[in-house]
UniProtKB/TrEMBL annotation:
One of its GO terms (molecular function) is transcription cis-regulatory region binding. InterPro entries: AraR_ligand_bind_dom, LacI/GalR-like_sensor, Peripla_BP_I, Tscrpt_reg_HTH_GntR, WH-like_DNA-bd_sf, WH_DNA-bd_sf. PANTHER family: ARABINOSE METABOLISM TRANSCRIPTIONAL REPRESSOR, LACI-RELATED TRANSCRIPTIONAL REPRESSOR. SUPFAM superfamilies: Periplasmic binding protein-like I (SSF53822), Winged helix' DNA-binding domain (SSF46785). Gene3D superfamilies: 3.40.50.2300, Winged helix-like DNA-binding domain superfamily/Winged helix DNA-binding domain (1.10.10.10). Keywords: DNA-binding, Transcription, Transcription regulation. It comes from Lacticaseibacillus rhamnosus (Lactobacillus rhamnosus). This is GntR family transcriptional regulator. Pfam families: GntR, Peripla_BP_3. CDD domains: PBP1_AraR, WHTH_GntR.
Length: 358
């Protein structure tokens, strides 16, 4: 047996047994030393494996195992990595049931908006060779930790899809909402209800929130009398919740009532509920003294007192499209991105200004 064939056979067996660290082949020099072979023999062996689709080379980055060659450890399985919103708005069970009806099992990991947790979850689904992975990104405006791994997944035909937001440098289907336009429409409606002093609260390391912030700004800038008397509080997920809430509180405590915001527009329901709780503890009435609008239509938004006005979307249509496009990709067809319109749900936390009982 010649050297190149011996090396190729040995590497093939090593790959099948999962004996490589991070599925990366050793360098040419390391292989030459291990097999006591020439550079020509090592290159001929790796070229043979590359032609067979077993490995692939990254310019300046090394040689890696093609996941499509490895034996699957998950069959008819879809991974879902969520930052948390899917659980809060009640979609997780709906998505899981929809895939189950199509013969697929949904495996879910919640990252709690942690980029490190997202990376580790994606790595697990990659190593298990799931058929597809759905990603609701964590800190999507700043996170770069998962980008290289997502590129490897695409090379190895593990289909990836983004939910609600994406990483601009990664080309993958995105199923999202009309964040900027919807927040602009909501803000305009709040202004039309008589509110002239607005407070916007937005998380600037999340692309969805950034888009909603842009919509908020666009709307109030069309009303100079509102723009001059409106404010924004921005924060990042690394900040403590207590610090953010305290900054919001300072817009109301020891401030003349005529100067306080009369409406608060918040980028998601989770933060809106925290703000509403703080105001109620401080003796500030919702909606009599200040109205609040969230975004996302979380389960809790309709169980608190007063019920939280929020922005929702067609959830059944969203889930149906998501499942349909995922299965199309798995079957070899090209999936299509889609943006779903979002709309205001008026509830008890939102009222005209000055407040009156309708």
């Amino acid at each position: 047996m010649n050297n190149s064939k011996r090396i190729a056979d040995d590497l093939r067996a090593l790959i099948s047994e999962g004996g490589l660290v991070d599925d990366q082949l050793p360098t040419e020099n390391s292989l030459m030393a291990k097999y006591r072979a020439s550079r020509y023999a090592v290159r001929k062996a790796t070229e043979e494996l590359q032609k067979q689709g077993i490995i692939y080379k990254v310019q300046g980055g090394g040689t890696f195992v093609n996941k499509a060659y490895k034996k699957k450890t998950l069959s008819h399985a879809v991974g879902l990595v969520t930052a948390g919103d899917l659980a809060e708005n009640g979609l997780l069970n709906t998505i899981s049931t929809a895939f189950f009806k199509k013969g697929y099992t949904l495996f879910t990991v919640e990252t709690h908006n942690s980029p490190q947790s997202e990376y580790e979850s994606l790595r697990s689904f990659y190593d298990l060779n799931a058929d597809a992975v759905l990603i609701e990104p964590s800190q999507s405006a700043v996170n770069t930790q998962s980008l290289k791994l997502l590129g490897e997944m695409q090379v190895n035909k593990i289909f990836t899809f983004f939910l609600f937001s994406s990483y601009p440098s990664v080309s993958a289907p995105l199923f999202s909402l009309t964040d900027a336009d919807s927040e602009a429409a909501v803000t305009s409606e709040v202004i039309q209800m008589g509110h002239k002093r607005l407070l916007g609260i937005f998380q600037v390391d999340d692309m969805r929130s950034v888009l909603r912030m842009n919509g908020f700004i666009r709307a109030y800038q069309q009303h100079p009398e509102v723009a001059l008397n409106s404010y924004m509080e921005t924060y990042q997920s690394s900040e403590s919740l207590r610090a953010v809430i305290e900054r919001v509180r300072m817009h109301f405590i020891d401030v003349d009532k005529e100067l306080r915001p009369t409406a608060i527009v918040v980028h998601d329901d989770r933060m809106a509920l925290q703000v509403m709780s703080m105001l109620q503890r401080a003796g500030i009435r919702v909606p009599e003294d200040v109205s609040i609008v969230g975004f996302g239509d979380s389960i809790q938004s309709n169980t608190v007192t007063p019920t939280l006005a929020t922005v929702s979307f067609d959830k059944p249509a969203f889930v149906s499209h998501l499942v349909q496009q995922t299965l199309l990709a798995i079957s070899g067809e090209k999936p299509v991105s889609k943006q779903f319109p979002a709309y205001l749900i008026k509830r008890k936390s939102l009222s005209r200004y000055p407040y009156r009982v309708d």
